[in-house]
Amino acid sequence: MMQPARAEHRILGVHGDWTAQSDGTGAELVCYVGSAPKTAEGAYTRRGETFVLVSHRPSERVIGEASVTAGYTYKEGLNAQAEIDGKVFLELMTRGGTAWAADPAADRVLVAAMKAGRQMIVRGTSSRGTLTTDTYSLRGFTAAYAAIDKACAPE
């Protein structure tokens, strides 16, 4: 899984299908959980790394910010969709190869659903018009998220 390039990288733990990690120290501390899809479907010939991250950046007062890296450039003007346990849950804004919730309130709702859910499906469309469906297991998400809550707790 791709990781931000920072000093002081630590694996906080692997919980089910999610890995909790931190980078940096002090004001530069960033904590995040990440997972790769269990299945990635679409009629594409090439695709880069695909994963979901949920991050805490305490110095910026950012807690629980979710993002999806698609492994391709999203089609301009089209949002991606996150579905949890069969329910279309949230539209995700897209730019370049990344999708994210529209605001911190949407992040909180998404993270709560991820904690309660078993499976998340992210659907997106590439700049070439290829529809992709990535299925993520949410097994271990809650424990991994608790690990970054502890590691990035305000002092």
List the helices and strands and how they pair.
Blueprint lengths: L9 E6 L2 E6 L6 E6 L3 E3 L9 E7 L4 E8 L10 E5 L2 E9 L2 E3 L3 H13 L2 E7 L5 E7 L3 H11 L4
Antiparallel strand pairs: 1-2, 2-3, 3-5, 4-11, 5-6, 6-9, 7-8, 7-10, 8-9, 10-11
Please give a structural write-up.
With 155 residues, this protein is an alpha+beta fold. It has a single domain (10-151), classed as Immunoglobulin-like (Sandwich), CATH 2.60.40.1880. 15% of the residues lie in helices and 43% in strands. It has helices at 104-116, 141-151, and strands spanning 10-15, 18-23, 30-35, 39-41, 51-57, 62-69, 80-84, 87-95, 98-100, 119-125, 131-137. An eleven-stranded antiparallel beta sheet has the order 1-2-3-5-6-9-8-7-10-11-4, with helices on one face. A hairpin with a 2-residue loop joins β8 (87-95) and β9 (98-100). The longest helix is centred in the last third of the chain and has 13 residues, at 104-116. The protein is globular, with a radius of gyration of 15 Å.
Give a brief outline of the structure.
This protein has 2 helices and 11 strands, in the order βββββββββαββα.
Question: What is the chain-wise order of helices and strands?
Answer: EEEEEEEEEHEEH
> Strand-residue fraction?
35-45%
**What is the strand tally?**
11
Query: How does the major sheet shape up?
Result: 11 strands, antiparallel
Whole-number tally of structural domains:
1
Q: Could you say what the CATH topology is called?
A: Immunoglobulin-like
User: Counting H and I runs of at least 4 residues, what is the number of helices?
Assistant: 2
CATH architecture: Sandwich
- Class from secondary-structure proportions: alpha+beta
Please give the CATH class: Mainly Beta
Radius of gyration: 15 Å
C-alpha end-to-end distance? 29 Å
Mean pLDDT: 91
Helix content: 10-25%
For CATH, the homologous superfamily is named as Invasion associated locus B (IalB) protein
Oligomer: single chain
